[in-house]
Amino acid sequence: MTTTHTKKTLRTTLAIATLITSCTLYPSLLAQLPNEPLPTVPKHTISPRGTHTTSYQRCATDYYDSLRRAQNPAYDQLRTQFEQAFLQWLQQSQIQLQAGQVYTIPVVVHVVYANSAQNPTNAQIQALINALNLDFRRQNPDTSNTPAIWKPIAADIEIQFCLAQVDPQGNPTNGIERRYNPNISCFTTNDDIKFWSQGGLDAWDPTQYFNIWIGNLCGGLLGYAEFPSGNQITSSHVTYGAVIDYCTVTGSCPPFGSRTLTHEVGHCLSLRHIWGDDGTACYGTDYCQDTPNQAGPTSGCPSFPQTDACSPSPPGIMFMNYMDYTNDACMNMFTQCQKTRMRNVLLNWLTPLLSSNACNPQGAPPTADFYGTPTTIYAGQSVNFYDQSLPAATSWNWSFPGGTPATSSVQNPQNIVYNNPGTYDVTLIACNNNGCDTLTKTNYIHVLPRPSCVVVGNVDSTDVPVIYVYPGGYVSGHNDFSDIGKMEYFAPSLYSGFPYLTGVIFWFGVGKDGGSGNPVYVRIWDTFGNVLQTEIITYAQIQQAVDSGWLLLVPLDTPIQLPTNHGIFAGVEFSYAPGDTLAIVTNSDGNSIPATAWEIWQDGSWYAYDDPNSWNLQVSHYIWLVLTDTLPQAQFTPNPVSACVGEPILLDASPSQGASAYEWYLPGGSPPYDTLQQVQVAYSTPGTYDVTLIVHSECLASDTLYAPGAITIHPKPQITISPTAPIICQGQSVTLTASGAQSYFWAPATGLNTTTGPQVIASPNQTTTYTVTGTDANGCSNTATVTVTVTTQPPTASFTIQASDTPLCPGDTLYLTATAQNADSILWLLPGASPSTASSPQTTITYTQPGTYTITLLAANGCGTDTAQATITIRNCATALPTTTTDQILTIHLNPSGEILLTTSQPLPNTSIQIHNLTGQTLYQTTSTLPAGTQTIYQLPQPGIYWITIHTHNNPNLPPLHVPLLYIR
Predict the structure, then answer these.
(1) Is 493 helix (H, G, I), strand (E, B) or coil?
(2) How far is CA 683 from CA 694, 714, 716, in A?
(3) What is the pLDDT of residue 255?
(4) Closest Cα partner for 159 from 212, 207, 102?
(5) What pLDDT is stored for residue 53 in this prediction?
(6) Which residues of the chain fall below pLDDT 50?
(7) What is the pLDDT of residue 26?
(8) What is the pLDDT of residue 300?
(9) DSSP letter string over 130-143?
(10) Which of 147, 221, 434, 536 is such that its CA lies 20 to 30 A from the CA of 674?
């Protein structure tokens, strides 16, 4: 038997209200959904958006460097000094890199913003620094994506970064300063963001702090950096540092995020772009021999290996290097050479930073502090922890009761798994050279019992639902900008531990069906813009949901295994036709920071709602993902696997995994369809039969198991017994023989010499009906019965005779019926007849010659015989001789049954025929043409004398005939 599995879900788009009232498949899912009917959503009017058409520019460091060279000859001289010094450091080995020594760089982050969307939170900035540390320490979780050939040269840079705890005046700080400046819409590479007088923020002493600026950069620029210059950094290097766009911190410009800072810090530590900044030629260099020659920047996220004109053979280019232009999700490594360059810069050019106490005020022990995310999880999910101790700690001792692992000594423990429901404490002991501090957060981690599925989204119960409108349409739906898509971004942390997406839920606030028949495409995208799956719904379904106050659930035909290193988008794409309208409900502006709502413009470009040139709204759509951690697996066992016609087979689906509902398809069976976990099916016709089992989980996922030829049905044997109706006298026996099977069992046992075998001897004392059960080689059984009649009386012979005519003439048929009593057998003795003997109770005979004959019936049973006889006479029935004309033109015949036949040798036109009896009564007359040949004219009613007159009016050779007919029987 071959079985085939396919993954699928319920294909019909269902409204949640319908599920609640009529479906019991999804109780775990339904318990997590909002109560219905849904409230009426208010409409809020806003101003229309701009027409911004920006595309992202990954990095402008090379342009910035060339611009500074052109504008300031002194800068060019300082850069030359640095390069010369750098070569000396490498050639003279003046530095000792001290493997295993981790150096910490204090960081200050300057935030310049014009609105709340451009102002990252402290937590987002801390997450940015945490991500930077993971990349530089090669603790990033996607190191597994580094191709095997390059893993040996992938480097832990052994450099880390901390937010400063002391400002230049010696006051405590969190390492973040902010300036609200609504007068500048965006910053360029002219360094205005680095000076208060130009609308930005001044650098802190670059010999004590590494400066990072965050703001809204013009033209879609994501970042730029300044290379080292001169022999060593001084306090005059006030523009040295990295500049990044706010969106890379808030996550509002995927597929680009925190690795923009990783890239720019690499520049600040002397790294060049991996292709050598030579356009698309192959002569440029990044001064590292362990990075392959590359023709130009790489975009998107190509698959490995990727070759180009400079590295035409595998393994090709190192597109996953942080110094390329690939998407964040595709970057994952620095090389050993890049490590050497950056640590040389740190230990020689940035030497003053190594003595900075900005992360650890002199004489002050740390105050332990930390946070975990998320703090409420389901059993089996994990939590990431981040140290926020100030001043900076140099060692850490974590305790995670209930977690796995239960302890850790790293600064930021990741993926602490909690397998059991409950509430758990977390303790951190943070130490530096000046002392230690302990912090215990009681009942900090809440672990909920793990459901079979979860519903996740970016909105919560405290958000205020709204539909934003403007004179030209809906922000989150149809509008006169002809937007073609609306979608929601979901970060990987939302679906941690539940890797399979099985459905999407929408709250449509507006839905009208104009009758166009145009579809609405529900799509799932990855962060690279690739469509992972598409489902189709209709405007009619959307309108029904809106009119009924329902959420609209769209199951996925095939569950999607979600990526762990980047998020996804879920939403709709649509077209425009008169009368068709839709809009998705969002929360109110400011409920979601950062915003997670996105859209596709008419030209196919993607924009976040919080883009100032879009809607400038900090909102999320009311779109939820239906997730599960386990997909169902259909399995069943048939018992037995083969059976006989009409016998039941038990099909048991209990071996299936993760199933809550079942569908059986059993063509040819009874029943042909069932929904129980166990079903009994029978088949009325022999053959092989397919079985299809579909199992459904509570989370919209299904699995189909198709088992062709899973069931074999055998025919039942046809059992016969001879003799068929035996009669015996008391004390006598009869041999009964069964056939048609392989083994036999007889019942009852009374009067039998054995109960098994094809042949038994029956000696009952009274009339008994025996049943034999015959079983063939396939184990199929059938029965037959025979009645053995037991009598004490001899037979009585008698019979009846019926004739086909009287008197009896030769050839007439006689019907004989035996009416003997108690006869076991009969024998007819029929001398002169055909046949001459017979043994059937009913028989048919004929005699061909006149005479007197005796019919004898012999009846017999075990008790004796009896005879009955009867005598019959067969008469010599005769007719008149036919009359024939002398020229043989016409002949008249009269057969023994009284039929008058005329035979003509030629057609006789206009011929009159009359038939009279002896009293002169006309029995028949006609005038017509007689055709050539023989035809029946008339049937005489009874024996007697008749006259026939024939007159041929147009034939002079045939005179009128007047002929007597004598009919005798």
Answers:
(1) helix
(2) 21, 10, 12
(3) 84
(4) 102
(5) 39
(6) 1-27, 50-54, 94-97, 878-884, 886
(7) 46
(8) 84
(9) HHHHHHHTT--GGG
(10) 536
Q: What is each CA distance from 955 to 6, 884, 886, 948, in whole angstroms?
A: 94, 16, 14, 18
Any idea which residue has 């290379």 for tokens? 227
pLDDT attached to residue 87: 79
* 589 Cβ contact partners less than 8 Å away, ≥ 6 residues apart: 617, 618, 619
- Would you state the pLDDT for residue 16? 35
> Do 749 and 809 contact (CB within 8 A), yes or no?
no
Alpha carbon distance 547, 510 (integer Å): 9
Tell me the torsion sign for CA atoms 737, 741, 743, 748: negative
CA angle 592, 593, 598 (to 5 degrees): 70
Distance, CA of 326 to CA of 310 (rounded, Å): 18
Query: How far out from the chain centre does Cα 599 lie?
Result: 28
Specify whether the CB–CB gap between 720 and 685 falls below 8 A. Answer: no
What b/e readout covers 895-927, taking b as 16+ CB neighbours within 10 angstroms?
ebebebebbbeeebeebebbbbeeeeeeeeeee
Beta strand ranges found along 697-849 (DSSP E): 701-714, 720-722, 727-729, 734-739, 743-747, 759-762, 768-775, 781-791, 799-803, 813-818, 825-829, 833-834, 837-838, 842-847
Structure tokens at 123: 């937590």
- Which pair of structure tokens corresponds to residue 36? 């219905």
pLDDT tens, 479-511? Answer: 999 999 999 999 887 887 889 999 999 999 999
586 Cβ contact list (under 8 Å, min separation 6): 465, 466, 467, 468, 475, 476, 597, 617, 619, 620, 621, 622
Q: Which residues, 6+ apart, have CB-to-CB distance to 433 below 8 Å?
A: 360, 394
Residue indicated by tokens 């015959």: 774
Catalytic residue among 158, 226, 264, 599: 264
The DSSP element (H or E) to which 542 belongs, if any, is helix 539-548
Question: CA 2, CA 214: separation in Å to the nearest integer?
Answer: 61
Cα-flanking dihedrals φ and ψ of residue 518, to 5°? -65, 140
**Cα separations in angstroms, 871 against 813, 853, 876:** 15, 6, 17
Please say if 599 is a catalytic residue. Answer: no
| Whether the Cβ atoms of residue 276 and residue 252 lie closer than 8 Å to each other | no
User: Residue 92 has what pLDDT?
Assistant: 61
Q: Tell me whether the omega of the peptide bond preceding residue 305 falls within 30 degrees of 0, making it cis.
A: yes
Q: Is 706 exposed, middle or buried (0-12, 13-18, 19+ CB in 10 A)?
A: middle
The CA distance from 205 to 198, in Å, is: 18
Query: Bridge partners of 316?
Result: 306
Q: What is the pLDDT of residue 33?
A: 55
pLDDT (tens digit per residue) in 671-694: 999 999 999 999 999 999 999 999
Q: What is the pLDDT of residue 94?
A: 43
Q: How high is the pLDDT of residue 375?
A: 87
Neighbours of 299 (CB within 10 A): 13
Token pair, residue 2, equals 């071959």
Tokens of 459: 């909105």
Say if residues 412 and 385 touch (Cβ distance below 8 Å). yes
Closest CA to 520 of 549, 486, 488: 486
Question: DSSP 3-state assignment of 946?
Answer: strand
**Residue pointed to by tokens 């019907």:** 815
Return all residues near 196 (Cβ < 8 A) that are at least 6 apart.
179, 202
pLDDT in tens, 796-849: 999 999 987 666 878 889 999 999 988 888 999 999 999 999 999 999 999 988
Per the structure block, which two tokens stand in for 654?
A: 């209990």
Euclidean distance between CA atoms 361 and 808, whole angstroms: 144
Sequence-ordered list of residues with C-beta below 8 angstroms from that of 496, at least 6 positions apart, any chain: 374, 377, 381, 382
Amino acid at 5: H
